[in-house]
Structures are given as C-alpha cells and as structure tokens.
Amino acid sequence: MRTPPSTLVAWLGCVARAHPGQPALVSEGGVCTYDELWGRSRRIARGLLAQPGFAPGARVGLLGENEPAYVLAYLGILRAGGVAVPLNGMLTDDELAEQMAFVDACGVIAGDADPQTRALLATRLAVWSPGELEAGHTEGRLPAVTPSGVACILLTSGTTGRPKGVVHTQGTMLHAGLQLVAAFPFGLEDRSVAFLPFFASIPEQVIPTLLAGGTLDIVPRFDPERISRACRDSTSFDAVPTLMARLLEDGRIDDLRRLRWVMFASEPMPVALLERWWEAMPDVATHTLYGMTEMLTITRAPDPLLRAAPDMVGTPFPTSDVAVVDREGRPLPPGEAGEVVCASPARTQGYLDDADSTAAVLLPTGAIRTGDLGAYDEQGRLRLTGRLKDTIITGGLNVAPAEIEAVACRHPRVASAVVVGIPDERWGETPVVVAVPQAGDGLAPDELLTFCRGELAGFKRPSGAAVVPFLPLTGIGKSAKAVVRQRVMQGEIELVRAG
What we know:
By secondary structure, the chain is α/β, with parallel strands linked by helices. Among the domains are: 8-171, Rossmann fold, CATH 3.40.50.980; 392-497, ANL, C-terminal domain (GMP Synthetase, Chain A, domain 3), CATH 3.30.300. α3 (68-79) links the parallel β3 and β4. The longest helix has 16 residues, at 34-49. It starts with 7 loop residues before the first helix and ends with a strand.
C-alpha cells in the first residue's frame, strides 16, 4: 500500500500526473495545464540550482504582480529545495532591500516588477526573471524535500519597524491546504478567480485550488471590471470584506451572481455587509475562514452555519484545538470572552531568528496565542470580539473597536468603517469612527456620529466621526488602521466631535 505524499510538492506532483490535461492556470496570456505547470516549474527549479549563489535551503525573494509566472516561480523555488519569501510590491525599494537582507536571501525572482526596483535590488543581490531561469535550466534530478524542510517565510510587516518572518514547512503548508480542501468546495470543477495579491493569498487560495486539481483564473490586481468579467466563466473567488464591499459598489452584479461560492478571510466581516451581499446574490454560497499567518487554519464557517449565525467565524477545523482562555491561560466557559489560542499541525515553526517573539506567542502546550479576543456560544461556535492590541481603554474600561464598527456598518449609507483609539485628556483614550459612504450618498459625519451614539452604551460611544472617500488599505486589501489613526492624529482626517 502506497504511503500518501507527505510534502506539498509531492502532493502537487501527484495531482499533475493524475490530471495532466486539466487547466491549472488561466490568464489573458492563455492556459497552462497541470502537465505544463509541473514541467515548467521543474525547469525553473533546475535553472535556480544552476545559479552560483543558490543551494537547497537558500532563501529566495519573489516579487511581482499576479501572473502565471509567479506561481511557476514559487513552485520552482520549493522544488529546488529553496525557501520562498513572497514580497509585498507596495513597499518602497529600500524596504524591499531591507527585507531581503533580513532573511539573508541569495537572490530575488522578479517577474512583472518595476524596472527601477529590479535595478536597485540588483545592486545588492542576484535578480532573476522566471523566463531566464526556465531557459537556463540544466538536466538532472531535483533534491529531495522533507515534511520538516522549510518551504516559505511569510513576512508579517515591513511598513513600520523590523518585520517578523513566519516560518512554515512543507508539512505545515500541505496540512493547511488539505484542511481547506476538505472544508470548502474546492475541486476539479472549481475555477477560482485569483485577484488577491499572491504574496499574501498563496496559502489560502492558490495551494488548495491546485491540491484539489482546480483552475486559477488569474487577474493581475483588484479591478472590479476585470473580476466581474472573469466571474462569467468561473465558480468562486477568495476575498477580504473590504474588497467585497467594493465589488458590491463597482462590480457587475449579474456577472458576480454566476459564481457558486466565495470565501472570505483576513478581517471580520460586518454582518450588515454580509446581509447586503446575500440580498444582491442570494444563491452564491458564502464561506468564512478564520486563520492567521502563524496558524493557517483555526475555524471555518460554511454557508449554512454563516447564514444561521452571521456574526460567527464557525467551528474549529478537525485538526485544530481551539480554546478561549483568560489572562492566566485557563479555559473559559461559553459566553465568556478571552484570548483565542489554537494548536494544530498547521502551526508555524516560529519567527525567523527571533526566539523571544516566538516564546511570547507559543504556550507550553504547543498552542499559539492569536492575539484575538473571542467567545464560544453554547453550540461551540466562535465569535470574535476584537484584537488585544486594538482594544481601546477608555476611563479604565475595555472597548472593542469591532463592536462599534459593526454598528457603524448598519447605517444604510455606510459602505465600510474602522474605529481607532486616540488620546483623550479626560478618559485616557477615546474611540473615533471613520467611514466610507455608499456610492452616491452624501453621508454627513455628524449623522454617523449620532447614529452610533444612539446604538451603543455610554462608554462605547465614539467621541468623533469622519467620512472619507476611501480607506487606506494593506497589501491584501484590509483596512490599514495604523495609517487611519496616524492621519487622524496629524489632522489629515478631520473629525466632527460630539457636543
């Protein structure tokens, strides 16, 4: 009896051999079948092994917009025994160079990247294109990889301060991918529109789609018109709530209705936004994934659960042990909020060269502290209530921004909203709300402020409100709260204050 593949690349190899003619990657440039995916990624791997500065175990940066060559290069790095380090193309050239120095990369594979960025990086380390590596391949066997071998380092920051490098192995990536395939409708017939940037979405969308033998319809960047067009021939997509709100505003609903299902993750989904989505597309199944860079699979809420309890992130994955604990690490009963901790084979090995940060999040049980606040209900469903680091302490009382954001999003003319805490002489800190109006609606800040204050207990009421045309976003499309707070503090976002 054959042993199931135990590494990510071995499993993908089995899929490619089982379905050689199945489309793997689709783009405006054409179709790449699984046979071509496997053959071309092998040539990139051999081309990488021929480079003087590369050896198995070396770290290789990966930079560029969404395109088939990005996926081929990612797989090529892993098949060569290397460690992929996806880079956020929104960073400055100096920040990118600093991140490459931080991980001690031997080089960067730069696809569709700015020529100036390529030139600057080339002054500090080797820069290759996927095409050059593929053309320069040599014949020979590829090195063996093991489940414990490092597959990727995911950088969790970089716009402020020193980043953290989250280390994942072939085994953790495979385990997470298979859990996602089992939990959501990935499959041979699935064609998934891929518009979230690959530097952030490979674990949650690209890998499970390929593990299931499905097809990725690649869109270079978030573009409602192109995404809508791709949905005509596709079955699903992966998104974050902020971008789902934009698709409701700017996408073509008739095209979006052709989908069978969507998955969203990365930040809490406001119930009001979810209800607007269901009203516009009642037959498109919605699934939520709760995970984090350090722990890819925590809980999941399939469509029936989500429609019954839209404020929940669901129940734990079968191999995830998820608990809500108090400050001393003791499990809390249903209904009591605390920090969410999780143990799973999908957990990171730790932070790169940072034993102190690793020790700060890993518990003696092997579970990891998520930094998220949540509570179980009596049916074993988890609801998130906020982030420990985002908690606003006003007059000695804790206020969860997510609760105020949920209220703000219930206003019929609000498309999206964030809440941040700012210093206050009387209370120490006070919440303020910053919202984006629905398209064409003239939402006034004082109207929003009155609405929120009328729905919340006294100590939770925002003391100020602002309406802006758009919110700053992170690379994957989440609201960048730190930037919002900075702009409020600097007066770039003007608040209307409560009387």
